[in-house]
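As the work plan foresaw, our protein records have gained a structure token line. A representative record is set out beneath this paragraph:
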Amino acid sequence: MRRVYNAIATALLLMTTIGAVNAQQSWNFGGTTLNNDIVGWGDLYNLSFTSHNYGTAQSMAMGNAFTALGANMVSASLNPAGIGMYTHSDLSITPIMQFTKSPTANSDAYYGSDVPKSQQVYSDHTERFGLGSAGVVFAAYRGTGAVTNINVGLVYNRIADFNQNRLNASLDNASYDSMANLFATLGNVDGLKTNDDGTMPFGNDPYYWGAVLAYKNGLTNKDDQGWFIDRIDEDAIIDQYSSVQTRGSIGEFALTVGFNFVDRIYVGASLGMQSLNYRREVYYGENYIYSDATRPTGEEMPYQLDYMNYLQRTQMSGTGINFKLGVTARPLDWLRIGIAYHTPTYYNIDFGYDAEMWSRTYSAGDNPEGYDIGPMGYMYDDAYSGVWEDAGPYSWCFRSPSRLLTGIAVTIAKRAIISADYERSWYQSTRLTSAPIKNLDYKTPTTTCFKGSNTVRVGAEVYITPFLPVRVGYIWSGSTLREGYEDMVATHELPKQESFITAGFGLKFVKGIYLDFAYQYGRRTFTNYQTFYAIDYNNAENDIESRLFSTTTDRHIAIITLGFSF
């Protein structure tokens, strides 16, 4: 069943996390319900991925094609030379409202038609209010010599947004392809043992927490021959449900200075300090279903699982720092040409993880182990692990890609502007620079799978009247994956490419007050993913894996900017 991992199987053996492959490197365990206990190479990539689509309402309406344009707060995060184009001091704030929906292909319905909306705990859409941009630029110096003016700005711009919900369901699966079987296999492959009192000595290694919790909840058992399943019959039908919710964003606070030389050459520099906040909640559940003809008798299986639920939470927060340098030339009154370089952002993040599992067992037999049985025939207390927390503190350091931006803008009859940007980002240079786990190196997967990415931004602005500009724009960001890797299955899905269409208008009032409105629609595509897999490279018949899923994210953003020039 494995449709991926062909040419890259050997490289990907080291690509998931420590402990994912046994000593003989013949098995690979992964999927969205595994490997959440560590900052993976895919996490580094997800935290680095951006198309620079946020900013002010003016810039977002024009597709953020502002590498050559300027006099906008977004210039601090694109080309700081644009800060030197302000002719007055300026203050603005840009709140945004986002509506995100992430439909999943190849998924059964997560909720039946009989489940009312009020009882649906998870969904594949989210609505979030946030801040797109805010800042102030001061006209610090005005002169008549070679230096026409010097401006200083303190600006916040949103760099990336992680708010997303997705659901998937897979009904009527054979009992072999279950998380219980995966955890039993993991226990046998990695030689997990129990203590004399039946506990497991893996409380300090979160990688094995899923296997430990499975044992505590009755999914697996162990004897002298190894790990096995004794509460799920091989004739059971398994319905599988999973939800992944991500929250958070990256915001950049930029201290920027811009110089204007005789209104022809603009030079700027920004010191960017980024704040990262990322949270992921992964839920996975299985229901074990029998027909009257297939349910084992109490003598055959005295304890039978009805369901299990597994919930994990990952949190990463920290700061990053970078430097940007830009130059814009205006050789003709109607022409501007800009170029900017962004150093990698050097992040230091704290990591936290917790997990819990609960299940219900039906007592179908004579209760040979003496459990307390309730009046409905269930064990008196449903099994529950409690929350296992690995709070750290653990510090992880990595660097994101460097970027090179170029742009050109032309003014037509002093009433219209057309602008275009090209951006190159080197994702293959993403590196883990420090980790609390020794000998952890993600250089192989990042250099093997990723390549430089191309982003194009175009925009136009036309003044219908001197007080009413109308704007449109478009952003396209190409694939970051090398040829042959677009269909790979990693632990978590990876964004491949995205595009945005934008539109908006502005209103200019007396005394320097302005109000801009914009709308942006974006679509992001991802690599395929599975909720779990255990791949035996020596014998494919032993593979345990879920269905293959594919999610696309559609995002609608309403933007408004209130500004004041003084």
